[in-house]
Specification:
Blueprint (H helix, E strand, L loop, with lengths): L11 H33 L3 H29 L1 H21 L3 H18 L2 H9 L5 H29 L8 H4 L1 H15 L2 E3 L8 H24 L3 H26 L14 H31 L4 H30 L2 H24 L5 H19 L2 H6 L7 H34 L1 H23 L11 H8 L8 E3 L1
Antiparallel strand pairs: 1-2
Helix pairs in contact: 1-2, 1-5, 1-6, 1-8, 1-11, 1-12, 2-3, 2-4, 2-9, 2-16, 3-4, 3-5, 3-8, 6-12, 9-10, 9-16, 11-16, 11-17, 12-13, 12-14, 13-14, 13-17, 16-17
């Protein structure tokens, strides 16, 4: 485990800016590609299934590699892995921009997800090696507004880049925009990042990683491909094999811990009821939200003929509402009401989603951007009230020693949920379009998201009453150093 410096490093704010550049690059890549997806489909003559892989494949490989990427940073140094991940992300983005067909674009998107899995997990450890306990809360306080602003600007930026069509690049510019960000992050990291090297690093769990990949891949592949092939027997067999892989992962993890070897995941975290229910809530919440946002983008651009910039601006009220809801929820309601704030957010989000359904039901393919401002704001506010404090509530269920492993699993499940949402709701949307048209397809997706509201309310009731202090882990580390020699820091 890395040790925090007593005094922050001299170039701490520059280091924070570089970490944020990587975080924004990942966030932009998710939101921008959604807006560009219909244009990509038209330009490459891609099938609906290929479109789902282009948008969801990145999240799939990101989820598979996330925990292992963090472990590699513990073993070989977070600075080194950050630089490798940044350059890998740049090269994969360049390959995506140059892809001549959908098949190669899907391949490069999968590689891009693996690169993100090396890059993104290193940020927290680097910040801990940079900032003193006194300055760290301020650094994390900057994180929220920057990420929130990126979420608001992402869809708009995606629309601008696609419609600008600079030098005939069309959608390819949404990947080229990653190049300057990634190169600056990598070069800056090489020059300014500190390095922490654990004296007793954990070992890699290669078998565990393979089983995670088998579980996720065997689940997502048939969910996306099944509709195109008419749901043959092998699609159900693969999903059954996914469940078997998950069972083998559980048995392997328990066995590895009993042999006093480092498992990919600390199994004791699942013994906490609040944490286990929280994982399910993460899965349901993000699958519904991300899948619904993708189908709404498809409805606006393919169904209604909106341009990319028109669609991006239309989606902006949701992102703005999320930013408002996150501030109100985390800053005002959570300290006073505890988990009740999550339930209020769920109810507000449900009202917004019902309003979204009613708007599309009444206006059909004549639904305007103005019609969607109000319902998107309400849906976004409710969503933001949940998404901002949710991880802290779930992590309140585990011990200080389990927080690192528990947080890694939450992040991986969040990414996997995005892939599942794209697979399930994307499949439902395209199936419905083929038989009943775009309006019916969008209505069904909205109804599914609305029906998840009582599920989320029930799951939230199983979480701890109060959220975990985000700084508790760091204070614990400062006052109770890890056993063994302290980490070595290299400029």
């Amino acid at each position: 485990m890395s040790v925090q410096p007593v005094e922050s490093l001299p170039r701490k704010w520059l280091i924070l800016a570089l970490v944020l550049a990587a975080e924004c690059m990942d966030l932009f890549d998710s939101t921008i590609v959604n807006v560009a997806a219909p244009t990509i489909r038209e330009d490459l003559n891609a099938s609906a299934t290929a479109l789902q892989w282009i948008t969801g494949g990145y999240a799939l490989t990101f989820a598979i590699g996330l925990i292992t990427g963090a472990r590699l940073g513990d073993i070989y140094g977070r600075k080194r892995l950050f630089i490798m991940g940044a350059y890998g992300f740049v090269l994969a983005s360049l390959a995506c921009a140059l892809a001549p067909n959908a098949e190669l674009l899907i391949t490069f998107r999968l590689i891009q997800g693996f690169a993100a899995a090396l890059l993104i997990p290193q940020g927290l450890g680097i910040m801990r090696a940079t900032f003193s306990p006194k300055d760290l809360p301020t650094a994390f306080g900057i994180f929220g507004p920057v990420i929130g602003l990126s979420a608001v600007l992402g869809p708009i930026l995606g629309g601008v880049l696609v419609d600008a069509d600079l030098f005939g690049t069309s959608w390819r510019l949404v990947f080229l925009i990653n190049l300057p960000l990634g190169i600056v992050a990598a070069l800056g990291a090489a020059k300014y990042f500190p390095e922490s090297v654990d004296e007793n690093p954990p070992s890699l769990d290669i078998v565990g990683t393979i089983l995670v990949a088998a579980f996720a891949g065997l689940l997502i592949y048939p969910l996306i491909q099944g509709r195109e092939y008419g749901w043959p027997f092998w699609t159900y067999a693969m999903m059954l094999a996914s469940a078997v892989s998950f069972g083998l992962l559980v048995l392997w993890t328990i066995s590895r811990q009993r042999r006093h070897k480092d498992p990919l995941v600390v199994p004791s975290i699942f013994a906490h009821r609040g944490y286990s229910f929280g994982l399910v809530m993460i899965l349901v919440f993000f699958a519904g939200m991300i899948g619904t946002m993708l189908t709404l983008t498809l409805f606006l651009q393919i169904g209604q003929g909106f341009s990319a910039i028109h669609a991006g601006l239309t989606l902006a009220p949701f992102a703005f509402g999320m930013a408002v809801g996150a501030g109100v929820g985390s800053g005002v309601l959570v300290p006073k009401l505890g988990r009740t704030a999550l339930q209020i957010g769920g109810l507000i989000g449900g009202v917004g989603m019902a309003w979204m359904w009613l708007t599309v039901h009444n206006n059909g393919l004549h639904t305007s951007s103005v019609d969607l401002i109000g319902p998107q704001l309400v849906w976004g506010i409710g969503t933001g009230m949940i998404v901002a404090p949710l991880f802290d509530f779930i992590l309140a269920a585990v011990t200080d020693e389990e927080t690192g492993s528990a947080s890694g699993v939450l992040n991986a499940v969040q990414q996997l949920a995005g892939a599942i949402g794209v697979a399930v709701l994307g499949t439902i949307f395209f199936s419905r379009v083929g038989h009943y048209g775009f309006v019916s397809a969008m209505e069904v997706c909205f109804l599914i998201e609305l029906c998840l509201t009582p599920v989320l309310l029930g799951l939230s009731a199983m979480l701890p009453q109060h959220a975990r202090d985000p700084m508790a882990e760091f204070e614990h580390d400062v006052h109770q150093p890890a056993e063994g020699e302290p980490a070595k820091f290299k400029a």
